[in-house]
Design a protein that fits this description.
The protein is mainly alpha-helical. About 80% of the residues lie in helices and about 0% in strands. The chain has 12 helices and no strands. The radius of gyration is 18 Å and the shape is globular. It starts with a helix and ends with a helix.
Length: about 280
């Protein structure tokens, strides 16, 4: 598990970089007004952690389980969705723009949010921003830039290997998730049944808050909504293992369950969004 998830991320980010256009990413940033940015910041970083903490208060969850939900909630921008966005008819370039922006914000927002949450439980937890920046650069920015550079300097080779890399990355990711489930099997059996209520509730909450804060006039709104559900499971696992001062076996099942539930909920929302957009276009 130590190398499977980072390996899958690296391969997929390299493949994604081969199909991205940096000018379009910057153009998508410019399309959003300052009000859009404030609402996106709230929907991405501030409200989901409140939902996770609220679920911990409403449901009979252990402190470790709540901590796992919280770490998922503060870690957005998973790099494993961007290509699937394009396959489902959403804007891949907008998804990449969101992913790069959220990755840049992670070293700023996560230390502050985790420190504030720690104070609520009389704990001092500080995550050095430079360590988060190093993880983001290693797992996302460097392979992404490498993919962009390969497409620029060797377009024929990049075009040939791009599909293969995507298949390989998804295969490694599947193996990593199976290994994670196998490792978490005993812990999942001992987890509270309420965990399987809290996890989809958090995912649905991410969708709901995005839809409330982002209007249909927001550029790429449906893409942004579905991207917001896709929290960074790998980063949450890393933070859980290195910085939690609680029973780690209770936090990991929360992260593992979200890794399985989020794609299902994103798929359901994608169908709803396509039907809604089709109905709207027909009405117009």
């Amino acid at each position: 598990m130590k190398y499977l998830l980072p390996g899958a991320v690296l391969i997929l980010m390299l493949s994604i970089g081969m199909s991205l256009k940096f000018r379009e990413i910057v153009a998508n940033w410019r399309r959003l007004t300052w009000i859009n940015w404030i609402r996106l910041l709230l929907a991405t970083f501030l409200v989901p952690p409140l939902i996770a903490l609220g679920l911990g208060q409403l449901l009979p969850l252990s402190l470790a389980t709540t901590a796992g939900l919280f770490l998922i909630a503060v870690a957005p921008g998973a790099p494993l969705l961007t290509r699937n966005i394009a396959k489902q008819g959403f804007d891949m370039q907008m998804a990449a723009s969101y992913q790069v922006w959220s990755a840049l914000m992670i070293p700023i927002m996560i230390p502050l949010l985790v420190a504030l949450a720690g104070k609520l439980y009389q704990r001092d937890i500080w995550i050095p921003p430079h360590r988060l920046l190093a993880v983001i650069c290693e797992q996302q920015f460097l392979p992404l830039l490498a993919g962009i550079a390969l497409m620029h300097f060797a377009p024929a080779l990049s075009t040939r290997v791009q599909h293969t890399l995507n298949i390989l990355g998804n295969l490694v990711l599947t193996v990593a998730l199976i290994a994670l489930l196998w490792k978490m099997g005993p812990a999942l059996k001992e987890s509270s049944p309420w965990l399987f209520v809290a996890v989809p509730a958090l995912a649905v909450g991410c969708i709901a808050v995005s839809r409330m804060l982002l209007t249909y006039d927001t550029p790429g709104v449906q893409t942004l909504v579905i991207c917001n559900v896709n929290r960074h499971v790998g980063l949450a696992l890393l933070l859980s293992g290195q910085y939690l001062r609680t029973n780690n076996s209770g936090a990991l099942p929360s992260v593992a369950c979200y890794a399985l539930a989020a794609p299902l909920i994103m798929g359901l929302y994608a169908r709803f969004a396509r039907r809604h957009d089709t109905a709207t276009s027909v009405t117009l």
